[in-house]
Amino acid sequence: EVFIPLEMDQSYANIKEGVEGGLADGYRNLFGLEFPGKTKVVESMIPSSYLMSGAEDMSHYLMTILNEGKYRDHRILSKDNAERLIKPLSNNSPYGVGWYYSGSYSWHTGEEPDYNGYMKVIPSGKLGIVMLCNTNDIVGKALAKDSSSTRRIPEGIMDMLSGFELPEAPALNMKMVYVIIDAFFLLMLLTVSFSLRRAWRQRKLPPKSRAYFIRNIFEVLLIHAALPVTLIVGIPYYFQATPPFFAINIPDFYAALVSISLILVTSGFIKLRRLFRRSSF
User: Fold this and answer.
1) In whole angstroms, what is the distance from residue 275 CA to residue 214 CA?
2) What sign does the CA torsion over 17, 47, 6, 88 have?
3) Statement: residue 146 has pLDDT above 80
4) Which end of the chain is least crowded, N or C, by CB within 10 Å?
5) Element (H, E) at 64
């Protein structure tokens, strides 16, 4: 009912059909390096995700929006409903029906761990653009914010078509950023691994001191219990996400966080065992 009148012959709503139809292999960024990925369908996201298409097919969709709901001789949407797609539903939010409204233009993004895309329309100028990528760098996009390449390239093209000067390229060097992040995680892993090795090889029993016992219990609770929980649960929620989201979309860094947390918990158990062996005062 949508693909046929829009002549979207290379568009699919089913992963298997998309692969058979020539879906490009996806790639994901792991510790700053590109690796082939494999799309995993998250069932809870099916109603809002996993539409596979090409730039030409998506241009038919944008033409329909810019033509107020019509594509060639087909009326796909009423004029009012076509406008509702890209205009805010209320004065308290810039969000329409899947599109964000920013005054003179509206835009929409879509992403999956191995793919991402960006669309933008300027109704007054009858301009629209879509960019589809068979890779995704969620960390890079989060750090670069609106200056990520997924947005800068189509935004720059639209600026040129609209007669505006191109903005300066951002100074953020993502290669160097990843070197710093990777070095930080490596240093953390080496530090906690050394702590675990030292705790494992410790043969001398702790002194029979109540103050020593209480101080070390507090240390275990803080460093070997609270800190791991903060790393694997607190950090995702700080970024308004969930641990499963991090595990699926940022598996490299989340695996590093989980590894650091497991080493901390293990060394904490070893310290507790030694403490309680001398817990009689």
Assistant:
1) 10
2) negative
3) no
4) N
5) helix 55-66
